[in-house]
Automatic annotation (TrEMBL):
Matching Gene3D superfamilies: GroES chaperonin
Similarity comment: family membership: Belongs to the GroES chaperonin family.
One Gene Ontology cellular component annotation held by this UniProt entry: cytoplasm
Keyword Chaperone: yes
Keyword set includes Cytoplasm: yes
Domain of life: Bacteria
Protein name according to UniProt: Co-chaperonin GroES
Subunit and interaction comment: Heptamer of 7 subunits arranged in a ring. Interacts with the chaperonin GroEL.
Keywords, sorted A to Z: Chaperone, Cytoplasm
């Protein structure tokens, strides 16, 4: 793929939602919601503020991120669906190394 986002935009590949519930019930395609989790595929260099100072982007390709339900613009590049959004539309980065405690 040859796509480079400009300024503070990122290219995100949506990560597929779970096919089953925790109890083992299979969720049909018609009942699934679009996932709000994705992986950064490409990112722009950053943006400039009103004084002309350059601020680099905080995410890099490979980061898993959360974003809002209606964030970004859906595009198709080389037959695959992606989202293009501004870095400010991202809600956070999911840390792969941290352990998550489950509630009892």
């Amino acid at each position: 793929m040859h796509f480079r986002p400009l300024h503070d935009r990122v290219l995100v590949r949506r990560i597929d939602a779970e096919e089953k519930t925790a109890g083992g019930i299979i969720i049909p395609d018609t009942a699934k919601e679009k996932s709000q989790e994705g992986e950064i595929v490409a990112s722009g260099p950053g943006a400039r503020n009103e004084q002309g100072q350059f601020f680099p982007i905080d995410v890099k390709p490979g980061d898993r991120v959360l974003f809002g339900k209606w964030s970004g613009t859906e595009v198709k590049i080389d037959g695959q669906d992606y989202l293009i959004m501004k870095e400010s539309d991202l809600l956070g980065v999911i840390d792969k190394t941290g352990s998550v405690k489950k509630a009892a």
